[in-house]
Each structure stands twice: as structure tokens, then as C-alpha cells.
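Sync notes, pocket subgroup
Present: LS, DG
LS reminded everyone that the earlier model was apo-only. Rerun requested with pyridoxal-5'-phosphate included. Inputs:
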Amino acid sequence: MTPAIQSTNFFMMYYSTNDKFHRVDARQAVLAGLAPDGGLYMPESIPRLPQRFFDELRGKSLQEIGYIVSSIFLGDVVPSDKLHEIVAGTLDFEIPLRQVGEAQVLELFHGPTLAFKDVGARFMARLMSYFVEEDDRELTILVATSGDTGSAVAHGFHNVPGIKVVVLYPSGKVSDLQEKQMTTLGGNITALEVDGVFDDCQRLVKKAFVDSELSQALRLSSANSINIARLIPQSFYYFWAMAQLPKGEPQVITVPSGNFGNLTAGLMAKRMGLPVDRFIAATNENDVVPEYLITEQFNPRPSVATISNAMDVGNPSNFVRMLELYDRNAQKMREDVVGIKVSEKQTRETIARVHREYGYVLDPHGAVAYNACERSVKRGVVIETAHPAKFKDVVEEETGEPVEIPDSLAKCMEKEKKSQRISSDFTELKQFLLTR
Ligand SMILES: *Cc1c(COP(=O)(O)O)cnc(C)c1O
């Protein structure tokens, strides 16, 4: 296959959003996650894809698109055959586009944990594995989770060579399904069930990173959601959605948003030439970004709990990346992004009505997006981020019918939980890591 860009020493550099002069290559940006000054890494330039790419888009597979787009971001840091392998390993499930009413719903939930985070986590895992393979020292990923991130990361890294994952979750504080998704994998994944709450897990992980004895004995890393490696693959499916649509019509894409990583990836795709008129940033009650787009004031605050809980974010970490893309100019951002807040009542009504009118079952996150799309443009692409079975109770309340449980989920629920219980005392975690 021909490379997307005839790469004669093409080298993408990344800078820290806190310091334009702090520049690293993709390898360093991915392995570090966060810049040392606490900033997020951003690509220094986002080149436009050649017109030919768009002319031929409709004949391309998801994997081909993924390869071409990621080669822009990774330049020469990953050899072409390796990048093909990473993309193919990431995208081995379908991402269909379905007509629902006047909108087209892009189903991003056919991966192993039934949520779109699988795409980012799987790509990051494979990319990190390639980077550590090069320098031959095993990497141990520590993750503290309140549920969803842990399972996506655990599945993403499962059986990936050169990497071990230790997931810390609060005992009795995650759903049965989430617990099974983290504790039944085995192999390179270890689940630690902590006697405590999520904050204890978080504290233990933070302490481990600054412990000198541990950092000498082990090469520790995090699988943080702000890692640029999670954003890169999230831009693929915007091109893929376009590849499945008839040519010509300018599109509007609605993205259910919390930390705004998904939307930021879409905005980067637009910068690369994706023919999109506008993005709609759909939020639940946690609406700091829609508010910014109206008032030009960014006012982060504690999150409020909703039924679309993966979007309960009061201080979205990717907002700074959005600011960078638009030179910190709200007026410029408005040309590409419209913010819409959706209430709990509207979310529930949307689940009920879309089921009644079109026989389609949305999850609460997709319902937020669907509602925002209906209220603004009606048509266009709606991003659906989770399988309704993950939010069975709410969905069944609104549709009045049992939600179909996918096979993979049913199988996972039958497996035996394997976790190791530890107290919330750091010495116990340290001992575990040193003697494992
Ligand atoms: C994480 C998540 C979101 C929000 O995505 P961001 O990139 O954080 O904006 C939406 N829906 C589901 C199901 C999620 O897990």
C-alpha cells in the first residue's frame, strides 16, 4: 500500500499546551502522556490530506483510512508495516452507520467493552507496546478506575506483549458488569480490589508514581485519557462515517461530550479536510463548554451526576486542546462548534420516543446526542458511544422492553471473577508490585 504522504523525513512534533517551546516527537508524547509542565501534547501542525484521498474515500475500508490518517500523526516514528499492524489490531470490529429517523447513527460500541473508548485504548496499547519493544524493558501500567476506564484499558492491553496492567478499583463500588469486565481477563491483566473508595485507588496510584524504590525496580506508566495516542484513532471514524454517506451534502456531526476528547479528534479531522459543516457538542447538565460558546467565559465547576454518567465532567481536560485549535478565540471556535445542553428529562424522553417511532434503542449518551441533533439540524451524523445494554436499567425503564444482551457480555458475566484484595495502605500495594 502506498503511504498517504510521501514521507521524506516527515516528522510530526508535539508541543505542550503550557509551553510552545517544549517540543517532543510522537514516541515521547505517547510514553509520557502528560507533558512535564502539566500541559497536554498537541500536534504542531495538522496537514490537510490530499484531494485524492477525499475523491477516493468511498472506496476505502476503515483500516485503510485508519492507516492513512495515523501516518499523518506518527510520521516516521512508526514504520509502515508496523502501523498497518497496529491499525488492523485496533479496528477488528465493525463501526456501522444506521439510518434512524432523519439522522445517521454511527455505532461505536461494537468493541470488547461495548463503548467507544475501546478504539482509543486499543490503539494506545499497541502503540505503546511497539515503543517498549524497541527498548526491551517491560512496562507496567497502573490505572485507578471508578469503572469504565479500567475495563477499556484492561481489554485494550490484554495480551499485548511487553506490557502488564494493574487495575485498582474500589471494592463494592463498581457495577457487576464493570467488575466482570476487569477481573475475568487474566494473563497480563491483574485486578486489585481495594478496600476503599475511588479516591483511595487514585491516591495509591499517584503515590506509586513518585516512589523512588518502585520507579527503580519497575518501569511504570499510566494510561491516562489525555494521552494523544487515544485521540489519534478517534479521528479515523469521522472519515469512515463520511465514506459511508452519499457524496455532496455538507454534514453536521453531533458528538456526546464529557472530557471532549472525541469532539477534539473530530475537529482535528476537519482540519485535515473532512467535509463537515459543523460539529454539535452535546452535553448533559455538565455544560461548561456550551456555556463558553455563548458567554466566552470558561467556568469549570464540580460535576453533577446524570444518567449519561460517562459525560459527568465539570472541568473537561481536552478543552485546552480545543482552545489551541482556535487560537484561544471563541468566535473562531463558534464557526465550527455549536454547544447544546440536554436535560435528564429530554434524554429519557428521547430514549422512549426513538424506540417508539423508529424501533431503535439508544443508550443515554447517544440519546443526549440524538436530542441535540433533532433540536438543531435534524439530519446529519449522530455519534452513539455505548451499547444500551451497559445502561440496561435506565433504558428498560424508558422503552418498557428488555434490552438485548450481546453474546460477548453474556459470556463475560458467566466467567469467574479473579481479583486480589488489598487494603488502602500504600505499603501493601508497593509490596505487591515489588514481589509480583
Ligand atoms: C467517555 C464517554 C463519553 C465522552 O467522551 P469524551 O471524549 O470524554 O467527551 C461519551 N459516552 C461514553 C459512553 C463514554 O464512555
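DG: The first strand starts at residue 13 and ends at 16.
LS: The pocket of pyridoxal-5'-phosphate is lined by residues 115, 117, 148, 256-262, 310-311, 365, 385-386 (CB under 6 Å).
Action: DG to write up.
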